[in-house]
Amino acid sequence: MPPAPGDREARRKDVSEAVWRVLADKGFGGLTLRSVATAMNVSTGMLMHYFPTKRALIAHALDLLEKRTAERPRRERPAEGLASVRAMLLDILPLTGDDTARNRIWVSSWDLALADEGLATGQADRYTRLRATIRPHLEAARALGELPTTADPEQLAATAVAFTHGLVVQALFDPGRFPEGVQAAMLDDFLASLGPGRT
Amino acid sequence: MPPAPGDREARRKDVSEAVWRVLADKGFGGLTLRSVATAMNVSTGMLMHYFPTKRALIAHALDLLEKRTAERPRRERPAEGLASVRAMLLDILPLTGDDTARNRIWVSSWDLALADEGLATGQADRYTRLRATIRPHLEAARALGELPTTADPEQLAATAVAFTHGLVVQALFDPGRFPEGVQAAMLDDFLASLGPGRT
DNA sequence: TTACGTACCGAACGCATGTTACGTACCTGG
DNA sequence: CCAGGTACGTAACATGCGTTCGGTACGTAA
């Protein structure tokens, strides 16, 4: 029997940490077995014990990205409606260092995803799920009178996601111009513009 | 003297075409001297005659991307104000095959740009210029009463760019869900929501 | 104890990459 | 005509990559 049955998951966690560090400052283009190995001061052969091929490592990196995104600390959800949408989008924006790293890695993964059909549909599904998560809150907002009665929640969800991720990209490239306050103000103005009150 | 002084630029144009083809379906991660060479049925040595190093080839690819973006066919600009902004943003969205390829290559370049400080500031500057191009039209729109008098043109330009590029990314990954009509409708609704009329 | 399977290292392999060197064809200037 | 420089192609080079292989240490099972 294996000498340390519980260590295996612990080791994989160590590898995950090293993969994350590499991705955060080199991106997927700089993700290599040796870079990960030297980042945790082990040999490449050790990596192969836990991830038999590089595809497996990349798959693990993407899983890790999705997992860390799902398990990131989130704001409490305030009252239903646009306030909830605001909290969800604030949780996406690169306001803290961790958020910045996570977003940076997501953007980096797009190069890979666009070149691989399987990864591309995975990313498309992820967007679909994100819109589906936001949509009920927009429906609630409409019911509360925070949106025009003619508003299309599905389309608005796509618009909100578009605004948010477009802001993410601009903020990643020019963090000095998009500090936390600016991002929050842009989000608030964007959400306010969705409100009813026009002819 | 060189045997064909005018051919040099013609040859570089051929190389550009091959580089473009490679980028369009492999991205920057798949841009290699041999992939370009085989894409135009020549040897790698021939490439080195025109681009002595790979950095030069990458720099040329980025220049090409910027040039093709700048020189792409554009809609006529209608009346000043939001209608002009609409035309500018429509010119960005991936509505045609060429637009899709161009946007795909831009997104692919972000992985490279985020890992290289020089390229990152270049991309940041590009965004600054794009916002600066849109901003005067937003000021005109405000003067025309198409925007609230309290509107901040610089911030609105950033918001419009964010919405547009966020939509670009979603559309690239899920073109079936974002056909031309959907993208245009989203843009129109987004611009309409900026209008005055609220308390 | 022995036997065995796991964990891991270090070195090597095969391959693709960027780059360089050498050779040849060709056009141009004298 | 010839001399020389340019435009390639061919072949080799060194490097870094993913992957494989033998070997050692160790803990468990019998």
From TrEMBL, chains A, B:
Annotated GO MF terms: DNA binding
Entry-linked InterPro entries: BetI_C, Homeodomain-like_sf, HTH_TetR, Tet_transcr_reg_TetR-rel_C_sf
DNA-binding region of this protein: 32-51
Coiled-coil residues: none
Entry keywords, A to Z: DNA-binding, Repressor, Transcription, Transcription regulation
Domain of life, source organism: Bacteria
Stretches assigned to the HTH tetR-type domain: 9-69
Record-given protein name: TetR family transcriptional regulator
